[in-house]
Amino acid sequence: MTHIFSRRAILQSAGASGVAAAIGLSGTPRHAFAQADARPWAILTDTQARWLAAACDVFIPEDDYPSASQAGVVDFIDLQMATDYGQGAGLYLQGPFPAGTPEQGWQLDMTPAELLLGGIDAHIAEGPALFDLEETGRADAIRALSERTQPIGGGTPATDFFTLLHSLTNEGYFADPIHLGNYEYAGWRMVGFPGAHAYYTERVDDASISTPPPPMGIAHQPNGRSTPPRPIPQGGRADG
Length: 240
Known about the structure:
- By secondary structure, the protein is mainly α.
- The protein is 34% helix and 2% strand.
């Protein structure tokens, strides 16, 4: 089975230059799904990206709408982990680290990127790799992960890892496409959300219009679409 997700995440809209600089890119910012970038990911390896595609598609499988990986969720996660949020900007990461409550926010001694990427690597090492399983096996593995209390690989807290993975999947599918997921407004079309229309001057005097306008993001391009994500086959390992 071929899952679709794109090459290296690069913003095209306002603020993109700063993001590109933060993750070590140069030149004119381009769209997240540009095909010509020779470096596929900002922080992920190909194996980690394949694991994420398999995991995220358990949460949001393909039906009448694209799956999570087809909608660019892997790109969204890649960018989030490579920039301030994933790198722990604004988090207090010095000890001591007593047990906290969910209401107290981040209570770990690692950044979100360290938690996510370390958890993926540890889960793959335990085997079998999620992307090597059939659909039912993947669902069973994710269900077991959601119920797991023992650390993954002895060091990654399973509950925190699963919570972050699930949250990032939802965020990537439903966030504005400026953040690299929600390709062609897949998430917004699913729930009927119109997006970031600034005004409705063409409709204000026409009371007969009852159909909501199509989705529009912050960096919407009315005269063209983004290049589609590239296909990457599931199965096997190819670090890069």
